[in-house]
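Entry 14: structure prediction run for DR9C7 reductase. Input pasted below.
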Amino acid sequence: FLGRIVFMSSVIAYFTLGNGIYSMTKAAIEKFCDALRLEMKKFGVQVCIIQPGNYARSTQIQPPVSAEEIWNELSEEEKAVYNKEYVQERANFFNSILSEGSPNSSEVVDAMVDALVSPAPKARYMVAKLKEKALVFVCTLFPTVVMDSVLSHALSK
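Run finished. Output tokens:
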């Protein structure tokens, strides 16, 4: 093979938990890579995707959010739609997810190195906790109506 391109995606490409824009961009990267991998194969270029799970604790990609800060940034129109309790629930939910992130980002780095130097790299490297891998599997297997129900329940906690 003559070359390699490695992209960073996320398991969030398969589902969204209130982070629609982030999820959408990761899903777009996945499909772009699928098309590019097939197109570049004839030129001897391999295309790989790294799909990390939650590594927020090790990367500090998103600091914890204060409900008060979020509330103070909302316009009066937004405040009329959302109440303070809702903002507090969402902040607690996202802060909980952030705190559950893996503290060991070397697993992601190892996958990136393998994608770059392996004589036979994988098309996808899913580097995630078992719970996250199971959720991805379920999302790809079950009908949308089932997943909407499951994710809606998770979001309502």
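Notes: The helical segments are 20-41, 56-59, 67-73, 76-81, 84-99, 106-117, 130-141, 144-155. Will compare against the previous run tomorrow.
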